[in-house]
Amino acid sequence: MELRQEVLEEMTLLRERTPDVSGSVACTVDGLQIACDLREQTGEQAAALSAALLAMSRRMLIITGQGALEETLISGTAGFVAFYAAGPTIVLTVLAGPGANVGLLRLEGRKTAAGVAAVAARKH
């Protein structure tokens, strides 16, 4: 099975395990979309922005000495967007609705990022 399909399966499992999750996108750290589970046609734009935010988040942690990146969480009036490093080459972006259980989002987002990283490691 190809990388895109296996990553999409991990993302589908995330949505099934976490009812507040409304979609996700996985991309390379260069911003190229790998797999998209978003209802809207915004995957390419989300991928590019995800890569940029991951780079900024990592850089901020380096210059402030706060350790390695676990996640970046953005809270908006209509929901949340969480970003995870899925190994050294992939970014996982997860969208959740307003009132989402943020603890569950963080737990399941990290678990999915680890699954995506494992898939990528097997493929390379």
TrEMBL record:
UniProt domain Roadblock/LAMTOR2: residue ranges: 8-96
Coiled coil (residue ranges): none
SMART domains tied to this protein: Robl_LC7
Protein name: Roadblock/LC7 domain-containing protein
